[in-house]
């Protein structure tokens, strides 16, 4: 757990139909939360650089890999299994969809040990640098095409 009285700095980057209800909820239960809206490119990179953890309660897209390339551990929603190779116990948590207690537990676990969180971020970076990246994907495609000759 975090030391008594210390709360994480919560920044919710993005936009969409749930932003207004989330802002209203945050004003009530977590007034220090920030909602900078949608960010892209260098603006978004600055948020990744300042973060200790990336949380996407739903199933993700390239945002997860981008967060990992910035050395962040990840909490994300379980999907169809396509992220099982990407999100592992060594670099993050996959939570069942629409399971608030599981999200809460993952957040508690993540925030309870800053040193472990940093190690997990290092593992995230290693995964996208060495295993799951564009070069690897192209290599697999090339191998498949060449095996058909």
Describe the structure.
- It is a single chain.
- With about 150 residues, this protein is an alpha/beta fold.
- The chain has one domain: Rossmann fold (3-Layer(aba) Sandwich), CATH 3.40.50.2000.
- The chain is built from six helices and five strands.
- The strands form two sheets. It has a three-stranded parallel beta sheet with strand order 3-4-5, with helices on both faces.
- Helix 3 (about 60-70) packs across helix 5.
- It is globular and about 65 Å long.
Broad shape: globular
Helical stretch tally: 6
Helix content: 40-55%
Strand content: 5-15%
Radius of gyration: 17 Å
Record the strand order, biggest sheet. Answer: 3-4-5
Assembly of the depicted chains? single chain
Q: Could you name the ranges where pLDDT drops below 50 across 5 or more consecutive residues? A: none
CATH superfamily: Glycogen Phosphorylase B
Secondary-structure-derived class:
alpha/beta
Cα distance spanning the termini: 57 Å
CATH architectural label: 3-Layer(aba) Sandwich
Number of discrete domains: 1
Order of helices and strands: EHEHEHEEHHH
The CATH topology annotation reads as: Rossmann fold
CATH class: Alpha Beta
Mean pLDDT: 89
The number of strands is 5
- Major β-sheet, in short? 3 strands, parallel
